[in-house]
Hints:
Elements: H1 3-11, H2 15-33, H3 47-68, H4 77-85, H5 91-119
Amino acid sequence: MNLNSEIEFYEELRLVDKARLLNLFLHELAEEARGAYDAGAEQVHDGAHLRFVNELYHRLTRVIEQLLAEETTRPADDVVLRMLLAPRTDKVAERLVYNAYARAIQGFESYDTTVLMGGS
């Protein structure tokens, strides 16, 4: 994954589409995080990565709110993407993010294509 090209792609999106992409990412990240626990409430076997996902959720839901409110004080686009996609020393966390982001991008692009085809 090329971080600079992902930043360029994200910077070109409308605010609502940035929010949509981040929301899709969070949905996919939740799917990835399901591997950190089993069915029972006491069956968390990877609390550190569950906490990592929770912290990312906390930060990104605020960014989504700022995007939708068109707040000028929101983090810069490159800061948001670097927070997500910069290499991590924790390779399990890195894999969680990369897998979720790859699926979000794939879903985002196919959704846009469908919308454009349907509007012609």
